[in-house]
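Case study B.
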Amino acid sequence: MIRRRASAVDLPGAERAGRAMARTTFLLENRVLGVLAFLVLLAIFFSLVAANFAAVANANTIALNGSILVVVACAEAIVVITRNYDLSVGSVVALASYVGLDLVRLHPGAGPILVLAPIAIGGLCGVVNGLLVAYGRIPSVIATLGTLSIFRGLAYLYANGQQINGKDLPDWVAGTASSHVFGLSTLVLTAVAVVALVGLGLRYLRVGRQIYAIGSNPAAAAFYGLKAPRVVFQAYVMCGLLTGLAAFLFGARAGYIVPYLAQGLELTALAAVVIGGVSVLGGSGNVAGAAIGAVTLATIDNGLVLLGASDFTRQFIQGAAIVIAVVVDSVIQRRVRDLLKLMRRRGRVG
Amino acid sequence: MTVARLSLVGISKSFGGIEAVRDVAFDVAPGTIHALVGENGAGKSTLVKIITGLQPADAGEIRLDGVPVRFRTPMEARAAGIVAVYQDPKLFPHLDVAENIFMGIHPLSRLGVVDRRQMYQRARDLLRALDVELDPYALVAGLSLGEVQFVEFARAMAEGAERLLILDEPTAALTPDETDRLFRVVRRLRDRGTAVIFISHRLEELSGLVDFVTVLRDGRHIATAPAATLDRAGVVRLMVGRSLDQLYPESPGGARRALGAELLRVEGLGQEGVFDDISFNLRAGEIVGLAGLVGAGRSEIAQTIFGVTPPTAGRVIVDGRAVAVRDPRQMLGLGIAYLPEDRDGEGLITTLSIVKNLVLPIVGRLAWRGILRPGREQAETRRFADRLQIKAASLEQAVSALSGGNRQKVVLGKWLAMGPRVLILDEPTHGIDVGTKAQVHQIIERLAADGIAILMISSDLPEVLRMSDRILVIADGQLTGEFGRDEATQEVVMTAATQRRRNRPAA
Amino acid sequence: MRALSAYRWELLLVVLTVAAAAWATVLSPYYLGFDQITYSLQQSMAVPAVIAAGLMIIVVIGEIDISLPAILALGNILFAHFSQIGVPVWLAGLAVVAVGVGAGALNGALVVAFGLPSLAVTLGMMGAYRAFALLIGGQEGYAAFDESYIWLGSALIGDVMPASLVLVAIVFAVFTFVMHGTVYGRLCYVIGNNARAARLSGVRVPLIKVAAFAIGGATASLASLVYVGQYQSARADNASDILLFIVSAVVLGGVDIFGGRGNVVGVLLALLLLGTLKNGMGLANFPGPVQTLVVGTLLVVAVLIPRLAELNRARLSPRRRPPAPEPRGQPP
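Model:
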């Protein structure tokens, strides 16, 4: 709902300020549309410029490549909304994928229920992160930088030099990656389901709303009795579980599972989240945006490959996109920051 | 006779040895609007915090409808039907109006999830009951301060303030129109039987609204009377009625100092949304007091002059030359120093030593080509520590270990070391013991005698009256009075401080 | 005795380093030789040490820069490129450091101009710098270098002391002087403790912040001059795992991650500890990721201990609850 409001305060300049406010909130409320528009423009650009872009087969490639990133982006988004980071998602994918699928390999008869194995491992990693950040009060950058190395080291130790061959896994594993339901890839459907479920959860569950509140104004959240540590902890656990799911999909798609897969995934995930309009300052954005951001990144990558662009261009664009997205976000949020500062100042008065 | 909705008996509370309220007792009848007035530091906020469960009282009893109660948390008070709307909005700017109203008290559907449709519906209902035109889907970030206040109010309604509603300065950010609307709602609540405690210093607007008035002064209850029996002058007299001589000895008198050239002048200074049309000047050797109630905008005026936030209107003239105000460093270079109200947060770096704090503005000057010279820093610090009588075990200890009074002396020393010509002091004796207060007063007078122009912001009326050669009064962001030493009395100042804002046409 | 307790943390680091050295000696008796120690230290910590010094200043002012390893890689490529086109080494060195200063200053300018969280900005710039490295050096990078270029990373001064360790010593001596003896250093600590009070006291906060980032960039590119000589390789993906090492060194060195506290000597001691530990792990044939695991665990433990002590203190005095700090994500 977009509303144009003129400020009611009768001081000079109020009219101007009122219009500025309306502009700001318009941008804040409709950022996802902006990202979507950008994606559409991008797609049009590539289809005009790159030979095979606008083909169904190519769209398929983008969808498959992007699906896993979409799931990870949703996971990361949950944490970023609380004003934190999770830099360990790449390592969590490696650990959950290797150990989880190894368990599957060791119990071939157990059936698809074992998809819970990598998910659970991811959840455990999320618990560790959550404990460190929410209760240990360690800055999330440091904590997850540490767990990044710890989780990957554990994966390596467990693997002990071995690798898991996709052929040794029961059929249902690979089937998940390649099968189709009603003509749509299971992978894509999973991604869509994740976005829908997480989006709904953030919108309709109390803890979902509290996640936004804590990211928006931690002081106010404390005043209303919202338990910030518990909510942040839950956010990390959610992130871990979803990353575990992504780990499964990763492993299902890969021919060989090695402990050093998904290196650098956290940076791509953060890029997707930031491009998708989730603010690193917390409190705003949604998983739909993060998903679109992920698809955008996948599209950029795909289009650039088709154009024969060098690795340089791809990496540069990814880095530049993050910087631009963060700068744009900061400008949009200026009004929000001013309001927060004003509230803090009035709080001291009296 | 009906039982009082709220009955306070012998309520006392001290913070760290300083008495905030003592032996306060009065009743609030159901279905009445009860004004709670008093100048800054009278104890109103403390009382509200005790009633709503944010702070426990040290002594005394609270009775709700005749039943003694003790609330340990605001949530317990809310459960009993007592809700307060504070001055500082605690809202989530990224979320919309309805979410803000219901955060933490979301209506739930049968499945245990948030019933969004009901949330927006109830928000709409609440806002309509408040007679305010707000879209429940609007982001709070885009609201004006007045609208934010209404969201706070709606939240209080949502929390269920059936028995007692406390409003702390609710009209501070409202237009006359919005104020009228608010009053209509408050009257409706009263008619339904809710008791309303209305804290405000805008005495004129209270006259048509409230049924009773309670006056607090220096933490004590002074009087409770039907509003009809008190006029504005009477209320002001009750608010300030104290004998001045008991508190501060007669000052040597302003004639002692010869006033020098004009060092600072502001003309039509304005900060959009905070204050406007402020004009005054400062002469060397003069102490000008800036009086007014908390929230009037005095600190903001000082910070604008100092360059913390550049002004949106008006001019600042230093030594006869207009200055384009940019940042504090520039103003410091012109010889203007500002001692912030938030001593520990902005005036000092409490984790660092006395030396490091005191020499901060001149550390470059004391150094040799960028290399620190601890010897000189120590010597300079010792000079000012002696001159200001700073009591500390060692100059290397962290400032956090010092008492409030000594900390203030460190801040003073910091600016004196720099050699300012204009010194703006924001609440210089706030939170300091009596003995050190007197010392600080002496220091200030000595500085004026040395030719420094001093602008002193203070909410302590006796202090302002004693120290100032001239008093400027700010109310709601406007200059409402200027008084010389001879004509200034507590009543005259307080009357100007509680004056209603003149309406200005929108640009 | 009081002086001793004030340096508790540093003493602990020394003790742990000695323990690590003892462990390394148990694994390989040759370790204790002077030549061996200096050589292994050069291999394990010379490059990170130089960067850690720069990162320390950035952390002291309350920010972070994770693009430093990327600036290192860019420096590598540029340096190697200069070697290939025959630029005299001293000129090339100056040019590379100049680029590093520019890159760091750019990071700082973005943070200061828009008030952006430094993590997000440097995350993006990291990709950009590596991308530039890729552009100049291509996928394969460089493998052949002029003799003079590899001197810093491999030569022995007087046949005894590795030149790179001498550089580390010089860098740390300079930084100790800057941080603890100059106006600039004092202002860095002031800003890290309370930037708002600093501004109100006339401190030029933006300038000092940008300068800190610029110094960080300079150390990263200075380190690349060593890197090239040490590994005789220059590729855009160099040093992708060095970030953990330098962050751990800074944190283990007692520098408060929130800013305003810490000394240079502590960081040097932490580097010695980590370097010795790394050598020991190498001798014990720990695989790379496992070594990283150990360092990561050390990082987490190093941050956790003061926190647990704080929580414990809070539990013991239930009456005075310390005010809960704002949940620290990345403060805007």
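The radius of gyration of chain A is 22 Å. The remaining cases will be described in the next quarterly update.
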